[in-house]
């Protein structure tokens, strides 16, 4: 592969790679490819932009990133694959790069480092798939860098500076993000 690989994932006994690459040897693979045991093969006509993350939920493979088209169809940052065909996810426009996914309370969450603005003036870095629509969810208090579920609790990471460096790890609890007390080591000039 001729570019970066952001994610490897196994879905229905097939290994998929996603990222910014466009070639496997001389073959066009346009940012998503599957492994046949010997080489990387194209997945349809691929993606118009980088695929940043993939996740499997309820036997569906989801891919998200910067793209606006996937396999020649209009797709707003997220697509899904049921093992037979790819389709766009959500009937509304996320309008920001999808940097990752998490599954929390049996719902698919997509997150961005920028706010999803489809419900302007309300916005959030986290969107939840509800039926066939994305809804703003779990409004995060900074620029979100990662989202993770541990022991049925939602965690997010960020960096930020107001009057001093803020904590980097937050836990969602009863409608509020609580800092976990994780402090910067000072190596970056902060405390």
Strand order in the largest sheet: 1-2-5-6
What structural class results from the helix and strand content? mainly beta
Binned strand content: over 45%
Low-confidence stretches: 186-191
Helical amount among residues, as a percent range? under 10%
Number of strands: 20
Provide an overview of this structure:
The protein has 191 residues and is an all-beta fold. It is 0% helix and 49% strand. The chain contains no helices and 20 strands. It has strands spanning 5-11, 14-19, 23-24, 27-28, 32-35, 40-42, 51-57, 60-65, 69-70, 73-74, 78-81, 86-88, 100-104, 107-116, 124-130, 133-136, 146-150, 153-157, 169-173, 176-179. The strands form six sheets. A four-stranded antiparallel sheet has the order 1-2-5-6, with no helix packed on it. The chain has a four-stranded antiparallel sheet with strand order 7-8-11-12, with no helix packed on it. Strands 13-14-15-16 form a four-stranded antiparallel sheet, with no helix packed on it. The chain is globular. The N and C termini lie far apart (40 Å).
